[in-house]
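Hey, quick one: can you model this chain's 3D structure?
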Amino acid sequence: MTEMVYGAVSAQRGEPILPKWWRTLDKWSMTCVLVLAGIGLLLGLAASPPLASRNGLDPFHYVERQAVFGTLALTAMLLTSMMTPTLVRRLAVLGFAASFVALALLPVLGTDFGKGAMRWYSLGFASVQPSEFMKPVFIVVAAWMLAASQQINGPPGTAWSALLCLTIVGMLVMQPDFGQACLVLFGWGVMYFVAGAPMTLLVGIVLAVVLGGTVAYSSSEHFARRIDGFLSPEVDPTTQLGYATNAIREGGLFGVGVGEGQVKWSLPDAHTDFIIAVAAEEYGLILVLIIIALYCSIVVRSLLRLMRERDPFIRLAGTGLACIFGVQAMINMGVAVRLLPAKGMTLPFVSYGGSSLIAGGIALGMLLAFTRTRPQGEIGEILRGRP
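Sure thing. Here's the predicted structure for all 387 residues.
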């Protein structure tokens, strides 16, 4: 017998897909995503022409590509958000298998584009970064395993998901890509915590991460250089962090004016990793606060809607997706203001990047699919012992 969500209208049998999708969708979160995509194009217009000029390309080359990638990302988001949780899970399993193979073959077929990290496949006209697509599909697959382990006589899903997580983290560290590795580990840890992990085990995981960081610092020159730069009391003004810090300081509350910023002429990654520095310099703290508010709105609203969800798989997968989305944004902005070591991580839906935008669209589509209103009782009713 169909149960009712408090304050929601039950789904009608035979109702067309589009009206049902629109009625059950979290429209506020979707609007926030669309606004972020618009801000990304606006900042792309400001940040990318200098890079295009240095590379001998049309001034709006990167803006046009971002518009194309953004359109594909939003299309993927809308189509994915219309799927049922079961269909999302099945497609995530297929996507996980493909992403896993792509990650495994990177040392053989991948390229580093001269950046010292083997993270991409070059297709000639574009490049693909498998780790971007691995994040959302791994979260869904791991949530499925964790939820299955809670069933009576269920499979050892927790152990399987942990083994998969460690394998993926190891593959990412070998690239090296410590930022994405931390995100994958964080996403799994959040879901494991929500699934009811004992605190002693979580403390052990944290200690293992600290130990792993110590080993990485001792054995990886790339990792050690970034940590040393972060801990140094002095910031070299000729480094990316130095340029970004100065740009944020110069921007003040209202910015120096549209097109008047100078950091985009100095930063090679002004349109990707340090896009927030361009926003702060030209538009000031006001725009930065708006961007932060948009990310917070998506994450908080998603978590609040997931609190009503009875299905443990949907609750875990949605929580993992929402948290890695918010944490990735926090890491990107934290690096720009020297609150965190440099990670080489994009700002979701704002930074330029085909893999990042399209994978982000798929991830947000999954999240919107999981947070759609469904005819069910609230989770609080279960805790109070009500049927």
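One thing worth noting: The longest helix spans residues 275-306.
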